[in-house]
Amino acid sequence: MSDQPLDISHDQHAVRLSKLAEMRAAGIDPFRAEFQTTHFSDAARRAYVDGQDYTVKVAVAGRLVVIRDMGKSQFVKIFDQQSGGAEGPLQLYVKKDLVGDESYAAFKKLDLGDILGAEGTLFKTKTGEITVRVDRYVLLAKALRPLPEKWHGLSDPEQVYRQRYLDLIVNPESRSRLLLRSRIVSHVRRFLEDRQFVEVETPVLQSVAGGAAARPFTTHHNALGMDFVLRISLELYLKRLLVGGIDRVFEIGRNFRNEGISRRHNPEFTMLEVYQAYSDYRGMMGLVRELLLSLCQTVLGTTRIRHAASGQDIEFAGEWREVPYRDLIREATGDADWFKRSKAEKIAGAEALGLKVDPSWEDFEVTNEIFSKRIEPGLIQPTFVTHLPRELCPLAKLNREDPTVLDVFELTIGGMEIAPAYSEQNDPLEQRRMFEAQAGGEQQNVDQDFLFALEHGMPPAGGMGIGIDRLCILLTGAESIRDVILFPQLRTTPAP
RNA sequence: GGGCUGAUAGCUCAAUGGUAGAGCAGCGUCCUUUUAAGUCGUUGGUUCUGGGUUCGAAUCCCAGUCAGCCCA
Q1: Are A79 and A169 in contact (CB under 8 A)?
Q2: C-alpha span between A255 and A264 (Å, rounded)
């Protein structure tokens, strides 16, 4: 072995570990330091009084993201929860003759990424930036790993998703998009609570995966010796609560579907479901329109949003188009008698529209393929597609005049299904027939406990679901569901 | 599940089949109002993994891993 110390200057992790060891040798443990803040960065800037430099005292803390060392003084910037706006991280000014020689020498050894607290007074620099002139600082946590590059940020999509914490630090667009999601969810809650809706939590572990058609995740409870599924929908438990007299009820919760992953699908996703007794699908139209309008106004500050994929602006104010499903199909196929055609004719019609159709599909599935592939993607402006064929959802009421269709709508915006809503089926006998037809004789797939609850009487009600992730895609202009989920599902790999 | 594309320094990216480079970050120096600060110098590579072709592979071929996009 050589007596020469190894050159570790190229290995940033090793350099930082050795800086930490030096500090500890000098009796300083930066992970045990304490500090009380008085302001977030934005509040500190607001606390500045024009023309009154060095009078207002603040204590701020955050992550060091910029260092401009000028020898005997430095400008640095710290990043905290509130520094995501236009002004960005808060600037600190550290002068050797103010903090003292020893403290200044230690400051020079700090690294980008370190978390520190600083006390000082506010002033405005020559170029007009409100800055904290530091009297005292404390290192609160040493960062042993370097941050991504300051100008280009983190752009490798894999790292953006796997190391979201870095994405949040260095990519302001990611940060504001994901924080916007929090504001959207928060506003949805407030909107519904203002209208006397009660928020509840229902079981995620269920013995029957009801309320939707999807493959569930399965798991096992050891003590009970029972298999469970993770819920694929919130619907059947919320309806039990309608039976229980909670007339306006909602849940914002995670559903799990054991299916493909794509730009529009994550195996776990967030649904809002709302039920209102003594209302119906038409009542839900008003509710969802008001909700989205107020979301746009309060969260985005505009009712018009840019839809990049189509190049159109989506306008939320004004009347929303309302059109029966069958009219859209007749229009798309150019066949006024579409619904009188045989299955073979429908398959031919779908193929004429360039669709691949599985001959084993049912009639209505062939037609619905046309809807989801050729019609829905073109519905950019908010559109209520009403009166879907009865085969498409077994939990809604049949239309009184035309019992082949349902009293339901699907709200479509930006080519995406945003909110389905029903006049909820509350006839327990009819509900049982629908379930049994859907289960195809597999009784274990019928939620008997729910049907038993319905037999006690559920008030007539309107119900609606909103996929929160898709709503966020729409309102934030994101390209993928992964961009509105903090930690999207990826294959697990060993830590780097 | 199928197709296409990609993986090079901590990060962002270069590199006709012929010595793997740059910017930022790091390390060392100068600078007490900077704004992607500036200045001078400088370290750093299992080119995703494993095979193959070739005198020679980051580059071509095969297999795999991971990711993105499209399709189912």
Answers
A1: yes
A2: 14
In A117-263, where does DSSP find H-type helix? 157-162, 164-170, 172-194, 235-243
> Would the pTM of this model clear 0.90, i.e. be above it?
yes
Sign of the dihedral through C-alpha A294, A248, A265, A354: negative
Alpha carbon A170 to chain centroid distance?
20
Q: Which pairing describes strands A321-324 and A383-386: parallel, antiparallel, or unpaired?
A: parallel
| 8 A C-beta contact, residue A35 and residue A58 | no
* Side-chain-side CA neighbours of residue A476 (13 Å): 26
Name the token pair of A42.
């934005």
A156: CB within 7 A of chain B nucleic strand: yes
Lateral strand order in the sheet of A321-324: A198-199, A248-256, A268-277, A461-467, A416-423, A408-413, A383-386, A321-324
> How far is it, in rounded angstroms, from Cα A188 to Cα A46?
29
The CA distance from A81 to A37, in Å, is: 13
Structure tokens at A22: 């030096």
Q: How many CB atoms lie within 10 A of CB A278?
A: 11
ipTM: 0.94
CB atoms within 10 A of CB A123: 17
To which residue do tokens 């020498």 refer?
Answer: A105
**Longest CA–CA separation in chain A, Å:** 94
Q: Which amino acid is at A325?
A: Y
A311 φ/ψ sector (left φ>0, alpha ψ -120 to 50, else beta): left
Structure tokens at A195: 């209208």
Strand B, nucleotides covered by protein (CB < 7 Å): 1, 6, 10-13, 23-27, 30-38, 43-45, 65-72
Distance, in Å, from the CA atom of A471 to the CA atom of A413, rounded to the nearest integer, reads 9
- A102 vs A111: CA distance, rounded Å: 17
Q: Which residues of chain A have pLDDT under 50?
A: 1-4
Q: Is the CB of A149 under 7 A from strand B?
A: yes
Distances (CA, A) of A426 to A276, A455, A463: 13, 9, 12
The answer to whether A262 CB is within 7 Å of strand B is yes
A18 phi/psi in degrees, rounded to 5:
-75, -35
Separation CA A148–CA A325 (nearest Å): 50
Residue length of chain A: 496
SS3 content of chain A, % helix, strand, coil (to 5): 35, 25, 40
Measure, in angstroms, how far nucleotide B41 C1' is from residue A137 CA. Answer: 31
Smallest Cα–Cα separation from A161: which of A492, A431, A409, A483?
A: A483
Q: Of A309, A283, A302, A322, which Cα lies nearest the Cα of A377?
A: A309
Tell me if residue A160 falls in helix, strand or coil.
helix
